[in-house]
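EI: anyone free to look at a 370-residue chain?
SC: sure, send it
EI:
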Amino acid sequence: MNFGVPKEVRDMENRVGLTPAGVHALVEVGHKVYVERNAGAGAGFSDENYRAMGAEIVYSAEEVYGRADVVVKVTRLAAREHPLLREGQTVLCFLHLAVASSDLVEALRQRHITAIAYEMIQTDDGSLPVLLTSSEVAGRLAPIIAGNLLSSTRGGRGILLSGVPGVPPAAVVILGAGAVGENAARAFLGLGAQVTILDRTPAKLHRIDELFGGRVTTMYATAYNINRVIEFADVLIGAVLVPGQRAPILVTREMVRRMRTRAVIIDFSIDQGGCVETSRPTTLRDSTFIEEGVIHYCVPNLLAQVARTASHALLNASLPFLYEIGALGVDEAIKRNSALARGVNVWKGRLVNPEIAHALGMDVEPMDYV
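SC: here you go
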């Protein structure tokens, strides 16, 4: 099978769909991998690194898409990539189709594309194995971002996350006790911050309490409790996920208005629309804005800041599925692997995922071979 790795086109997106190790793994079992020139440069992987692992370097995105049966990306396709799609091709990436533009949906349908969303590959126990690794990286980045934005030189409250003897630490509130929330709690707690985490699943709150030995305050995520705790927060982390759906708005503009002046909101849910009413997508080039006196950081591809780590983590999680696709073919792999099947948003141009269809206000279509 022919796999293709185009260079990511979104501004300052430094991650890459396959690392050289991933290329080696696929080439070793008989597949061909076409990598666009400089696709891995932002993550520190040279074309020579890829050649040494058996990749064929090509000199345009057009050539990658023209040769590949399966295109392996990180972020969803940008508008200028839509015309490059080849009839019947398969694309794997973080798709977030529920909040994507209608022209992307139309391009996938017109060209009979099979589009598999990494963030929706889900095992029978409900875990999201590919999203998990990226969520771990995101959560552990949270205190680095927050500490920078809290500094006086960035217009923040001038607070040290850990505090010092006689001066209290920063108060951090995390909405969501999933992988992002748990890893953010671990990282903030390790730096000495005061951490409160809210969720609507009691079992997750019990897990957090046991995991951190009661050092993290846990609360049920009612509107009343959210309103109460964020009023005194120096940092608010939005880490809410409903797979395949737009993130619910848990923090209203009125709640933001009551927060401390120059507190920090980091809305990790922004790739699914955001869980804070005042959030709007920003970029790594222009990452923050101030709304209601509060600093907002809402960068969908913030992992591009640690592109090498993030690319390795993505490979570790996605490679078993790429192996299966390569060995069985796309359709047979989807038939046999229920986790992979749950990640299929569009199959040969048909919108087959019920959650995505509902979010887009469209009819779901059957996968007729199942």
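EI: The longest strand covers residues 70-75.
SC: 👍
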